[in-house]
Write a structure and sequence with these properties.
Order of helices and strands: EHEEEHEEHEHEHEHHH
Shape: globular
Low-confidence stretches: none
Strand order of the largest sheet: 5-8-7-6-9
Distance between the termini: 25 Å
Strand content: 25-35%
Number of strands: 9
Oligomer: single chain
């Protein structure tokens, strides 16, 4: 725990809460800090990857960016889990639907994460590892979606290393029941498993790969608040009130 600050996070140990809600876009992180946190304090500006710690309903919680792709998510979540004492990370972000039962604005709760990434090779496992979320967080998130009346599905997500793929084959993943594609969840879930901690990802459908429907980057940044409502409503399930 004495490896802080790290080369990528300029915080001291203790500056970051045990629960961190992460998003790829640092501007979305800034918006979450302003909208949901009381008395947020910025703990990181290194490489523009903003991070803030404040309180939500009397519980100490942090928000931070993770960038794009397995490499970036893998780096930041590894340092948070292993150097800053973080116990729970919840990712909120966008995903492209590859099943016909999801629509723009729906939520996809990632129970598991498929991937064509080589990220798991570092563990030298004698087989294929299946990265999964913490079941308690999945169950609570689904219950909150029901409570709020938000459209959602729970299932497998594809974490791809490639955004502009020469041979995407998303129809084949869809035939296996995979809901949507994004770029970070598998690395997050693997780091959580390896460090003995918890993780969950809640994604908003920003485009539909099978139909071609999509929305603008500005709309993704400013309007995808249902997943944030669910993520912050999970805070009381995870963190005890400050005394």
């Amino acid at each position: 725990m004495n490896n802080t600050p790290t080369p990528h996070i300029g915080a001291q140990y203790g500056d970051i809460a045990e629960m961190v809600i992460m998003a790829g876009d640092p501007l979305r992180v800034k918006m979450m800090a302003e909208k949901f946190l009381d008395s947020p304090v910025c703990f990181n500006t290194v490489r523009g990857m903003l991070g803030f710690t404040g309180t939500y309903k009397g519980r100490r919680v942090s928000v931070m960016g993770h960038g794009m792709g397995s490499a970036s998510m893998g780096l930041y979540s590894y340092e948070l889990y292993n150097f800053y004492g973080v116990k729970t990370i919840i990712r909120v972000g966008s995903a492209g639907a590859i099943c016909h039962d999801l629509y723009i604005g729906d939520l996809a709760i990632a129970m598991g994460a498929c991937s064509e990434s080589n990220y798991a090779a570092q563990y030298e496992l004698p087989g294929t590892f299946s990265p999964i979320a913490d079941f308690g967080l999945v169950r609570a998130a689904a219950g909150l979606c029901e409570q709020f009346g938000y459209r959602y599905k729970v299932g497998n997500i594809l974490s791809s290393d490639i955004f502009y793929s020469e041979n995407p084959h998303y129809d084949k993943w869809g035939k296996m029941g995979v809901l949507a594609v994004e770029m970070e969840i598998a690395a997050l879930y693997m780091n959580a498993a390896r460090s003995g901690n918890k993780a969950l990802a809640i994604c908003t459908i920003s485009d539909h790969i099978l139909t071609g429907e999509s929305i603008t980057a500005e709309e993704r940044q400013n309007n995808f608040t249902h997943m944030m409502d669910v993520a912050f409503s999970l805070v009381p399930f995870v963190i005890s009130p400050l005394s």
